[in-house]
Amino acid sequence: MKTEHLYVESCACHKVRMAARAVTRAYDDALRPVRLRATQLAVLVAVGNDISISIAALAKLMEMDRTTLTRNLRPLAKEGLIAVGPEGWRRSRTLEITKRGQARLGEALPYWEQAQASLRRKLGEQNWGRVHYCLDQLIRAA
After folding, report:
1. pLDDT for position 66
2. What's the DSSP call for residue 81?
């Protein structure tokens, strides 16, 4: 029993996942009026930054497994927010944000800004900077 308790209290993976779920839930709640999830917004932003990007390049950019990314792209494509190009060289497909996707992104950003400001307020400026610094360190260390 003591080992399990120690695990819950000291496991970096467990704590980071708990934090990720809590933060994701807060952003998902904020984005609900525009019918987007935080993960979908991140994909729209990333795709919108390029004229077109391959799924493999986007997965690498977002540090996501390609299969997970593909699963997250389906609802965005189905709703017409992104366009998935035909299969090209080495079976790669390109992604582009559509006009509809750009419009939804424009609607969503104020809600994202509110969620961001709320979390920043709750953490305080000093902790906000520390969290970002520590997360960057954690990403590089892992």
Report:
1. 87
2. S
Where in the chain does DSSP place strands (E)? 53-54, 82-84, 94-97
**C-alpha torsion 1→142→62→27, nearest 10:** 40
Angle between helices 38-48 and 55-62 in degrees, nearest 10 = 120
Q: What is the pLDDT of residues 4-34, one digit of tens each?
A: 777 778 889 989 999 999 999 999 999 999 9
Query: Virtual CA dihedral for 77, 83, 87, 91, nearest 10 degrees?
Result: -70
Does residue 64 sit in helix, strand or coil? coil
Q: Is residue 68 within 8 Å of residue 79, measured between CB atoms? A: no
Q: Are 7 and 18 in contact (CB under 8 A)?
A: no
